Amino acid sequence: MEDSVLNNPTTHAYEEVDIFTWSNNLVQYVDDLKIDLYFFNKNYTVYRVKVGGGAGIQLRGLFIDDILEYVLGGIEQGLLVRGFEEAEAEKGVLQKTLIRNVDKLVYSLNWIKNEKHNIDAFIDSEHDLSRMKGVIAHCYYTDMKQPFYVIKSLPGSQVMHGKTAWMYKDGAFKPFDEMATMKIPADNHLLAISDDLFVFNQSKLKGLFGYDAKAAVVAQKKVDEIEQKFKLSFDGANTLQTMVFGKPSTIKKLQKIEIEAVDQTALMTHAEEMGIDLFTDDSGAIIIMDDKDLVKFVNLLNDDYVESNMTGQRYEIISKRPLRIKEDN
């Protein structure tokens, strides 16, 4: 699978995960798996979750069994695994992307992988269960080649605190006192293995990490078209793809740009007329040294700079709607 527009360089060669082989191999370890839980909030700060009593026994059923059932059952039913650029979400298709495409997930997993000793324990009185956005189950076993991570959304509607909820016990309703309770969703959301992120629920991917895979695919195609049509010069190892990485507003704008409507000469002429400081090097390539140059270039592509014929004032258009002129019959 090709790198996407939100791709970050990695230090090792990418090896695609065969989810079917992986699931078959996992069966032999599933009873011995160690599972550590972590919450993360809206700022993607990660907290270590202490699990006590009989809750630990439920972890496999909550995070692993349904995934194995879905994948192993899918072998007989012809389940297909495809990247987002290859297929729409549909029955019988499991979609995936690269973990490194989802920068906020990369950030959270990095804490678990490399900064585990610095992660604070979750305390409801300090961190508030209702503010937790998702849960990550870190699953591992000594004989397994690599750990994996199951990620699920935590709907705020599934959280109850003692002051607002009762429990039914011994034939009567009683307050929870200082307790808080939550319900882990039973359906599958996301599974991270090695470099691959398997997406069982596309809306959860966007809701949890703000990553719209389809939008990223469209933006990737736009980047490819731009690189073919325009001669660009970047600083160091940067490319248009690496500079767009992690900039959702720029990616959103790229989706709407009509590349055919402008060429390099016209773009630079318009930049000069509007007083936009965008320059070319000795070979005629447009110089994009930093994020400011990137914004100017993308805005010019999107025809966001205009001059009023009435006042002579120059504007950057934040949003625009084509004017439809009613023609006389």
Describe this protein's structure.
The protein has 11 helices and 16 strands. It has an 8-stranded mixed beta sheet with strand order 2-1-5-6-11-12-4-3. Strands 7-10 form a two-stranded antiparallel sheet. The chain has a two-stranded antiparallel ribbon with strand order 8-9. A hairpin with a 2-residue loop joins strand 11 and strand 12 (196-199). The relative contact order is 0.12. Residues 1-10 have low confidence and may be disordered. By secondary structure, the chain is of the alpha+beta class. It has 2 domains: 19-211, no CATH class; 215-316, no CATH class.
Key traits:
eight-stranded mixed β-sheet; 11 helices; 2 domains; 329 residues; alpha+beta; elongated
- The computed structural class is alpha+beta
Q: Helix tally?
A: 11
Form type: elongated
Instruction: Work out the strand percent.
Output: 15-25%
Order of strands, main sheet, comes to 2-1-5-6-11-12-4-3
Q: Supply the number of structural domains.
A: 2
How do the SSEs run, as a string of H and E?
Answer: HEEHHEEHHEEEEEEEEHHEHHHEHEE
Mean of all residue-level pLDDT scores: 85
Q: How far apart are the termini? A: 53 Å
Largest sheet: 8 strands, mixed
What is Rg?
Answer: 25 Å
Record field, number of beta strands: 16
**Uncertain stretches of 5 or more adjacent residues:** 1-10
